[in-house]
Design goal:
binds S-adenosylmethionine; about 15% helix; globular; 25 strands; about 525 residues
């Protein structure tokens, strides 16, 4: 039912939108290098989804939108259209006439506060919203009086009717001056309106909206993070400023605001994977011959060819599609070290935090909002060779800090649907990994932030094998990427999968080791 959504439907529409948008960006990236006009992949993706009816909550409504949760983030206005949170792709106020009440003026349904008008003042639970109109085209300054019509009139009607209005806060991305992020901040009511002279001397409408109490905080979280980052307030519960002791270029703090535990058991921080000398490394690649940076439309780049023919990442380093194996460039490639095909090699690039969870020990979360496809970190640790695997089977099975590619995960589709773009389905759409031989990594004694990532049966990150060369040998690395957009302070989790031996061994009653506490409605019940 596309009319009334639910969480699953909203997630599906959001994933489909972004997969199509990433593919369109990838196609645009190839044109950009030949100086063609840059189009807006987000608008195009939105139009495709609208036309093909891959959308939900199509009917306008007052109040909450089924499946959209407070705190959800959006990187494009079109995403809010396709899930039915805010229908207009440009205008800041969405409104409608009430059923059977055509004489009455329409009421406001949702507003997007973008800070575009120069007189906006914002506070966490109160929002002063400027009406629309009076702007001269293409300019930031107001040029004429605003009129009590359309959205302004709807907000005025909502003041009298006291109906709930959804508020979406637009904010600059902390890490990028050009990106804007939209946060769904829940339901508000219009409490006051007045007319005021703007800076340009023209009349503008002002509306004071107050947040309905009792809703989970969303925008307040963002404000706190901003204050910590700017040093305006101190972070409560910080046990250690940098758990990596300078091994990563961005410090990762250790935070506990749950109990008195001072930190996890001792381990040595190491930012990447360690292969034992005995390990038979995968074939040595010879690198590409590109002269400066590898460019998306260069079909002769051997690294791009090895990844399946398309540049694996968009220009801003976002993974486009899952691949059987991604080949990144390495030292023996002739391209520059800042080539865009080296996303996973230089450690953590986002603000991560190791924090104490209520019931699952320590966990990992990000202070930055993450886009679907963002690189998070690799799984670092010591690779266990075949002989050790055979000799120490029991010890390895009991190691809580083991990553094992032979574990069986629930399959899921992440890549774009070629048919939505009129493309033929090809092998490139294959999401099954190709790993030359089983890879088992222990991060018990030596590891990075990934050793703190807990399991979830409805995870928000996934792993992808990546091959690149180091010291003249190519080796597989396990890199984690965001499945969907992840709001700041949300725990990062992946699907640990089921041990292939315990899956086969139904007679062993001890094969289920621990109760799973992921809390997902799809929880499998146990960790193995
Ligand atoms: N929480 C760990 C810590 O404090 O170091 C970090 C993750 S460690 C790789 C894996 C262990 O975390 C598991 O053996 C289990 O004890 C715990 N854990 C992870 N996900 C869990 C879940 N969904 N439910 C219960 N325990 C979990």
């Amino acid at each position: 039912n596309r009319e009334d959504g639910n969480r699953e439907m909203v997630n599906y529409v959001m994933l489909t939108f972004d997969a199509v948008r990433r593919r369109l960006s990838q196609i645009e990236d190839t044109k950009q290098s030949t100086n063609a006009v840059i189009k807006r992949p987000d608008l195009k993706a939105g139009n495709i989804l609208m036309t093909k009816k891959v959308r939900t909550n199509m009917n306008k409504r007052i109040g909450a939108v089924p499946g959209v949760e407070i705190g959800d983030i959006f990187f494009f206005r079109m995403e809010m259209c396709v899930v039915g949170l805010h229908a207009p792709s440009m205008a800041g106020i969405d409104y409608m006439s009430l059923k059977g009440d055509l004489q009455e003026d329409p009421v406001a349904l949702s507003i997007v506060s973008s800070g575009g008008y120069d007189d906006d003042v914002e506070d966490s639970d109160v929002l002063i919203y400027s009406g629309h109109g009076g702007m001269s085209s293409g300019k930031e300054k107001q040029a004429a009086d605003q009129k009590l019509e359309r959205g302004n009139l709807a907000l005025e009607t909502s003041l009298h009717r006291a109906n709930e209005v959804r508020v979406i806060r637009g904010m600059k991305d902390f890490n990028s001056a050009t990106t804007k992020i939209y946060i769904y901040d829940g339901l508000y009511k219009v409490k006051e309106s007045w007319v005021e002279k703007g800076k340009s001397g023209c009349n503008m409408f002002k509306y004071k909206l107050e947040r309905i109490p009792g809703q989970p905080g969303a925008f307040t979280v963002w404000r706190s993070i901003q204050k910590w980052k700017e040093g305006l307030s101190s972070r409560h519960g910080v046990v250690l400023q940098d758990i990596t002791s300078g091994s990563e270029s961005i410090p990762v703090s250790l935070v506990n605001d749950v109990d008195n535990e001072k930190g996890p058991a001792y381990f040595t921080y190491f930012p990447t994977i360690k292969y034992p000398v005995s390990f038979n490394l995968v074939h040595t690649s010879y690198g590409c011959n590109c002269n400066s940076a590898c460019v998306p439309n260069d079909l002769s780049c051997s690294c791009i060819q090895n990844s399946g023919g398309d540049f694996p990442f968009t220009a801003n380093g976002i993974l486009v599609s899952r691949k059987p194996l991604i080949h990144e460039c390495g030292p023996s490639c002739r391209c520059f070290p800042n080539c865009k095909n080296r996303v996973s090699q230089s450690g953590v690039k986002i603000h991560l935090e190791v924090f104490k969870t209520k019931d699952r020990g320590w966990g990992l979360r990000s202070l930055d909002p993450l886009r679907a496809g963002s690189f998070i970190c690799e799984y670092a640790g010591e690779v266990i060779d075949k002989f050790k695997l055979m000799q120490n089977r029991e010890e390895i099975e009991n190691d809580e800090y083991v990553f094992d590619t032979s574990r069986v995960c629930d399959s899921f589709k992440w890549n774009y649907e070629p048919a939505l773009l009129g493309e033929e389905s090809s092998n490139d759409a294959n999401e099954d990994y190709i790993i030359p031989s089983r890879l088992v990594i222990s991060s018990k004694n030596v590891g990075n932030v990934a050793r703190f990532i807990n399991h979830s049966c409805s995870p928000n990150i996934f792993w992808q094998p990546i091959l690149y060369e180091h010291n003249n040998q190519s080796s597989i690395h396990i890199a984690f990427f965001a499945i969907r957009h992840i709001p700041p302070m949300t725990e990062l989790t992946y699907d640990y999968g089921v041990s292939s031996s315990s899956e086969a061994d139904n007679s062993n009653p001890f094969r289920w080791k621990k109760k799973c506490l992921c809390g997902s409605s799809k929880c499998r019940g146990h960790l193995t």
